[in-house]
Amino acid sequence: MEEFTLLPDLASRTFGGGVVFANDELFAAADHLVEPAAPVFAPKTFGLKGQVYDGWETRRRRTPGHDTAIIRLGAPGVVHGIDIDTAFFTGNFPPHASVDGTALQGYPDPIQLAEAHWVPLVSHSALAGDSRNLFNVDSRQRFTHVRLNIYPDGGVARLRVHGEVVPDPDLLPSVFDVAAAEHGGRIAGCSNMFYGHPQNLILPGLAGSMGDGWETSRRRDDGNDWVLVQLAVPSVIELADLDTSHFKGNAPGSATLRGIDARTGLLDEPGDWFELLPQVRLSPDTRHRFPIPAVPTATHVRLDIFPDGGMARLRLIGRPDAGVLRARYEAVT
Question: Which pathway features in its UniProt record (predicted)?
Fold first, then answer.
């Protein structure tokens, strides 16, 4: 598996991604392309237009040309790789595809998108059926939309656009959740993710269930579990939200938060870390909010839970370094 698949899916509905144009979707709606869940399939399940597919499927083309869908990225950013997933499409997958990207301000309509300047991200490439087709992307430009072209027609289950979130500073308040994946926060490490990936901690919205959070296996030693978050931008943390929603018999007993500025300190040097939140008791199935006293700027925050268990979300409301935020945006636009 390519390393880029560990990065967030910028096109996902989780971040607000959506299909804004498709020239044809007779057999199955293009909206399926950005669904966060893995595609599913029930054989011999027929609707009024044939076998039901969890993906985008166009009619059999009888004229020259190809089919196209345009996706608005929920989290604009730099694309590192693309996954064109043809799961369950066997005799009806496109033999070839390409992907382009563009960057536009505001909320362009299909006419404006048709007139935009598109940059090739994936060249005209062969696809395999019922497979994840992975393509590295070399461009380091920021994009807001991608265009999937399939040749000449057929079905694609999902389009994953993995990359680095780069928000527009003009669209952010002066204080926001600097750990959030939709703003560029990312998981930099963790001790254990047996039941749930720590990436869930920083996803948008409230957790829908216990399976929508981070959960470790049961510890049988004297240690504790932890997760390390790289903030979207160096920031001064002002408020922490430690959410154990849905975790009832398996919430951590307590937790701490520590920060570090990795530009001047070392992540593996204990003396370079500073306290954000002393060890506090956590209740099951509860959103806990804690004000953070004035502390130095942090680039990373470590959440330690004692001794183990599950967390639904981690929110770190902070005041970002506006200069760094602006420079990062301008470097890729």
Answer: Nitrogen metabolism; (S)-allantoin degradation; (S)-ureidoglycolate from allantoate (aminidohydrolase route): step 1/1
Q: Is the dihedral of CA 141, 146, 150, 156 positive or negative?
A: positive
Query: Would the pLDDT of 1 be above 70?
Result: no
Asked if omega into 152 is within 30° of 0 (cis), the reply is yes
Chain segment 12-25, per-residue pLDDT in tens:
999 999 999 999 99
What's the CATH code of the domain at 272?
2.60.120.260
220-255 per-position pLDDT tens digit? 999 999 999 999 999 999 999 999 999 999 999 999
If you average pLDDT over residues 4-14, what whole number do you get? 96
Q: Which DSSP string corresponds to 35-85?
A: -SSPP---TT-EETTEE--SSEEPPPP-SSS-EEEEEEEEEEEEEEEEEEE
Does one domain contain both 150 and 184? Answer: no
Among candidate residues 182, 127, 136, 141, the one with its CA nearest the CA of residue 16: 182
Rounded Cα distance, 333 and 323, in Å: 16
The last residue of one of the domains, among 165, 181, 201, is 165
Give residue-wise pLDDT tens across range 99-149: 999 999 999 999 999 999 999 999 999 999 999 999 999 999 999 999 999
Q: pTM for this structure?
A: 0.94
Residue type, 228: L
Structural domain span for residue 157: 3-165
Contact 49, 27 (CB under 8 A): yes
Q: Check residue 264 and report its DSSP letter.
A: T
